[in-house]
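$ ./design --mode recover --in tokens.txt
reading tokens...
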């Protein structure tokens, strides 16, 4: 059973999440939210992934967001919604961690609210937000953003390459007051 953000963000208390021995391979991040009330400007939430070649504070090697994919095809935004309308997940990103070049040691995934139409929104003001991370049929993490209700952006996952070359999921949800452009750098700077 997945853990909710009000409990614990990783499946194993006090430790990272990884596959049995090899680490995580192919992870799907899905995001959903309800549309804005009738007459209000639309709510647009975005999944953003940033890849890094070191653990040190640095600019990301590349970003994946806004209906795009990584240069090598290992990270893809498969579905991009600007309104939250529809059934199921509104945005879906696939991360093929096992295919990432060995020079990549960290991948950060965040969610940001586009501030548009003169309305500033926080996660607490967007109805029924939820992000899920899963590998195959195994749900790794589920957040409802309640822990970061006053934030406009959040880091929802940090994938780190282990000494054996596999990938593990570390950390918990962390909120920021930032726009989508600043989120990758804030996620990289925070620990």
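writing sequence...
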């Amino acid at each position: 059973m997945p853990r909710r953000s009000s409990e614990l963000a990783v499946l194993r208390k006090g430790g990272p999440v990884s596959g049995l021995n090899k680490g995580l391979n192919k992870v799907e991040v899905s995001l959903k939210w309800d549309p804005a009330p009738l007459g209000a400007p639309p709510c647009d939430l975005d999944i953003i992934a940033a890849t890094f070649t070191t653990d040190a504070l640095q600019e990301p090697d590349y970003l994946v967001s806004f209906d795009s994919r990584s240069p090598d095809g290992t990270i893809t935004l498969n579905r991009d919604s600007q309104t939250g309308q529809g059934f199921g997940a509104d945005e879906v990103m696939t991360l093929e961690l096992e295919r990432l070049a060995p020079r990549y040691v960290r991948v950060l995934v965040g969610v940001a609210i586009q501030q548009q139409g003169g309305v500033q929104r926080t996660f607490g003001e967007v109805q029924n937000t939820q992000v899920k991370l899963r590998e195959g049929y195994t749900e790794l993490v589920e957040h409802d953003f309640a822990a970061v209700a006053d934030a406009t952006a959040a880091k929802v996952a940090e994938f780190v390459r282990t000494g054996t070359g596999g990938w593990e999921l570390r950390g918990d949800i962390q909120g920021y007051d930032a726009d989508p452009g600043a989120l990758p750098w804030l996620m990289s700077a925070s620990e």
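exit 0
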